[in-house]
Q: What sequence folds into this?
């Protein structure tokens, strides 16, 4: 199981960014997917989730209305469109599967860093 | 939305038992999971579904549940167990994942 995030970077407050997560080593379309973030020196925060086909999504209160999760099962990819970014969105963003995948529990990617700063 | 509450820090001497609690209203109905996160590393599951231990996790790690509280116990804690520990679960509706605030375990 491999999850590789990309798309992070530095953006000004109010700006937008799109994160991607490339999945491999398992049958992507069989699993719900999640984004979890961790601000520097802070705890883990669930950001968003999607079911296997994208029909059922959920968002944390801090990002609801600003972030949109989506997936492309044909490309084995998960996305997070982040709009109206705030300084407090600065964090390492992880792609995560909650559950057992190929004998591994809760596989995580290595994360992509988003920095929102003026 | 539901919240999970953990103590910010726990400190024990090597060889003692460390206990980290996590409390929340959804816990009687939803499974809890425990992550260990060492500095600069990705979180790793040490307990899943309240009390199950993944393969490769030392037997000194155990989990228990009682009402609105779950507990991670590390029997005979070792210096290498120093890390941040997070509990997580889902809210009562099962749609949202909720993390505890994390507990920094110091073994010295």
A:
């Amino acid at each position: 199981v491999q999850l590789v995030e990309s798309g992070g970077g530095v953006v000004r407050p109010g700006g937008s960014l799109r994160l991607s997560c490339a999945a491999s080593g398992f049958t992507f379309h069989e699993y719900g997917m999640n984004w979890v973030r961790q601000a520097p020196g802070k705890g883990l925060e669930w950001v968003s989730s999607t079911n296997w086909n994208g029909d059922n999504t959920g968002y944390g209160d801090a990002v609801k209305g600003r972030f949109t999760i989506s997936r492309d099962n044909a490309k084995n990819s998960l996305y997070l469109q982040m709009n109206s970014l705030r300084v407090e969105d600065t964090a390492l963003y992880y792609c995560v599967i909650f559950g057992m995948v190929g004998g591994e529990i809760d596989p995580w990617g290595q994360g992509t860093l988003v920095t929102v700063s003026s | 939305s539901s919240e999970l509450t953990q103590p910010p820090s726990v400190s024990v001497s090597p060889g003692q038992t460390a206990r980290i609690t996590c409390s929340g209203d959804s816990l009687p109905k939803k499974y809890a999971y425990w992550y260990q996160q060492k500095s600069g590393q990705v979180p790793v599951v040490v307990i899943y579904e309240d009390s199950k231990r993944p393969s490769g996790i030392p037997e000194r790690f155990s989990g228990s549940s009682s009402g609105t509280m779950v507990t991670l116990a590390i029997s005979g804690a070792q210096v290498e167990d120093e890390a941040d520990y997070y509990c997580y679960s889902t809210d009562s509706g099962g749609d949202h994942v909720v993390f505890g605030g994390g507990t920094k375990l110091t073994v010295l």
Q: What stands out?
A: Chain A has a mean pLDDT of 96. The CA atoms of residues 15 and 68 of chain A lie 14 Å apart. The first strand of chain A starts at residue 2 and ends at 6. The interface with chain B takes residues 34, 36, 43-46, 49, 58, 60-61, 94, 98, 105-106, 108-111 of chain A (CB under 8 Å).
